[in-house]
Fold this protein.
Amino acid sequence: MKAERKARAETASEQADAAGLDEAFVLARAAVDSQDVPVGAVVLDRAGVVVGRGQNVREKLGDPTGHAEVVALREAAATLGTWRLTGCALIATLEPCVMCAGAAMAARVDRILFAAWDPKAGACGSVWDLTRDPLATHPVPVVGGVRADESAALLVDFFEGRRLG
């Protein structure tokens, strides 16, 4: 009985993650309209409900901190009425950078899931591994590479378009 409940909970969590990543991809595609790099992110609460959404807005707002993950974390904090996002998951279309990984850790998210690895600025296992650093005050479990090809194609298309344009 206990194993069956655990399996149902894992399936529900996987479904929520998949739906969250779907929404993050929608947000990433929308970022292109403002000439921002196509990255999207969502924050899910314990029940798998989206409580924060974000897309890159650095170009749109002229804000160096306007990364999708930071925008989503801010909205989640506002929605929940607290900066402590314990029980929440950050889901993004690209591996978080040092700033975004640090923000997720500071917000006390329970886990991070992302699509494409970022071999230039990733801080969740590729260039740096900030989220699992033994000296970190709040290490965060990470799952990376989920639908990586889809995210990589979106980024390649964006940057090729900028080079040609």
Remarks:
- The chain has five helices and five strands.
